[in-house]
Amino acid sequence: MKETEINFNVQLDENHIPEKIIWAAPDGGVVSAESKAILLSVWDDKVKEALRIDLWTKEMPIDEMKRFFHQVLHSLGDSYQRATDEEEIAEEIRKFAEYFADRSGIKM
C-alpha cells in the first residue's frame, strides 16, 4: 500500500488569526505553496457528518473570497457527479453556483 501526505502549515498572529498558510502535496508537485484560504471537509463515518476546517488569512480580499466560494460551489457539482453519477442534481448545484456568482456581483 502506498501512502501520501498533504500538509498545511498555518502561521497565526497573537490573536490566533491566520497570517500565512503554506501547503504541500509532494506527489502532486506542490512543495511549498502559499495560499490565502482553505476550505477542508472530511467525513466522520462514526457520527455520519461532515467536519470542516475553514481558514483564511487577513490578506484574503472579499472579492477573491467570493470568487473562491463560486469556484468551490461549481466544483462541488462536478465532484457530486463523479461520486454519484447523478448528472441532473450535479447540474442543479452548478446552476446554484452561477446564481451565487450573479447575486454576489462577481459574474462577468
TrEMBL record:
InterPro entries: Motility-assoc_prot_GldC. Pfam families: GldC-like. It comes from the Bacteria. This is Gliding motility-associated protein GldC.
